[in-house]
Design brief:
Helix content is 30%, strand content 29%. It has three helices and four strands; from the N terminus they run αβαββαβ. It has helices at residues 8-16, 34-42, 76-88, and strands spanning 21-25, 53-58, 61-70, 96-104. Strands 1, 2, 3 and 4 form a four-stranded mixed sheet that branches.
Length: 105
């Protein structure tokens, strides 16, 4: 646990290294990612790098959202728990972490 907000790209790297994680997807709904999608289609750079993990801080509350795919060979619940623990170890103590399993490969 830290008092600083983690960089989303750092969290992506760490989450992908968790045993049982096979992929990671952006948790934001398509409408929220529209600027990124338009930028990708037109070749224009968006305002910031796209991330598969969204970190937001509003009024001192930190929220981290991740959406993953897991291996069918591993226990999905345990994999999601390891991902949450990995994220929690790098976020403020009172952060709210959401890990959604989108697919089991």
């Amino acid at each position: 646990m830290t008092s600083e907000l983690p960089a989303p790209h750092e969290l992506v790297t760490r989450v992908l290294a968790v045993d049982g994680v096979t992929d990671i997807y952006a948790p934001a709904p398509t409408a929220a990612r529209l600027p990124e999608l338009i930028a990708a289609a037109t070749g224009i750079s968006p305002d910031g790098p796209a991330s598969e993990i969204v970190v937001t801080s509003t009024g001192g509350d930190t929220t981290v959202a991740a959406r993953i795919a897991t291996s069918s060979q591993d226990n999905t619940v345990e994999t999601a728990r390891r991902v949450a623990d990995t994220i929690l170890a790098r976020t403020p103590l009172d952060a709210h972490v959401t890990v959604q399993v989108a697919r089991i490969h």
